[in-house]
Specification:
Layout: H1 8-16, E1 25-31, H2 38-51, E2 55-61, E3 64-70, H3 75-80, E4 91-93, H4 103-116, E5 127-128, H5 133-138, H6 142-159, H7 161-172, H8 177-184, H9 188-202, H10 209-226
Helix pairs in contact: 6-10, 7-8, 7-9, 8-9
Length: 227
């Protein structure tokens, strides 16, 4: 799955282990526990998952413990069931995949976030892979780079220029509504309304520190691409 080689052979092997290939699932990835036999660590993950009516496949790759959790409704909620079984450090969860055939997408996102996680040392455990979009883009993740441009920057450019202008001024003013209003010669309420429109278009709130970081990186990457 980590190598995106979920062909018929892999699906057949998973089926032999009793895995339903159509189970919705997510990948959870973190440091393997120290001082514990790896087979015992993986068995504890499986035991915990069974206790919560979840299916799981486990593996250790280098110093990483990887778990696929199946039969889930919310990836983050499912990951919370086993997060304490990983060693200290980041625990990241990929997005939901429709089944084992597409599980590589969840695993790829989780692995990318795991590699970029040192850039956000105070991240919660577990954290969604999408929460690391700025760090992933800065670390060279092409998917995260495209996502920030196409889903954050581009919608604002295509909406109306005042949104990009307001967002840039807001960041330049250090997040002050009144200072932004003075720069743009508009009322602070107008700034507040435009920032609300930014959030509605992108799903990222400029007044939230983490969302603001993603928007700032998207703004930089988008301008570079358009230059």
């Amino acid at each position: 799955v980590l190598r995106a080689e979920t062909d018929e052979v892999v699906l057949s092997r998973a089926s032999a282990l009793g895995w339903d290939a159509d189970l919705p699932l997510c990948a959870v990835l973190g440091h393997a526990p120290d001082g514990v036999r790896l087979d015992a660590a993986m068995e504890e993950v499986r035991r915990r998952a069974r206790a919560h009516d979840l299916h799981t496949l486990c593996a250790v790759q280098g110093d990483r413990l990887v778990a696929l959790l199946g039969g889930i409704e919310d990836p983050l909620e499912a990951a919370e069931r086993i997060a304490d079984l990983f060693a200290d450090g980041p625990v990241v969860v990929g997005p939901m995949a429709a089944g084992l055939a597409t599980a590589a997408e969840s695993a790829r996102a989780a692995l990318s976030a795991y590699r970029a996680a040192p850039g956000w040392p105070d991240a919660p455990r577990p954290a969604r892979s999408q929460s690391f979009l700025p760090e992933r883009a800065l670390a060279g993740d092409a998917w995260a780079h495209r996502y920030l441009i196409e889903n954050l920057y581009r919608p604002l450019v295509e909406a109306r220029s005042t949104l990009i202008e307001t967002l840039a001024a807001y960041f330049a003013a250090g997040g002050g509504l009144e200072a932004t209003g003075r720069t743009l010669f508009v009322h602070p309420n107008t700034v507040r309304y435009r920032l609300k429109q930014v959030a509605e278009l992108t799903g990222f709130l400029p007044t939230d520190s983490r969302d603001a970081l993603a928007l700032q990186v998207a703004l930089i990457l988008g301008r570079q691409q358009d230059h």
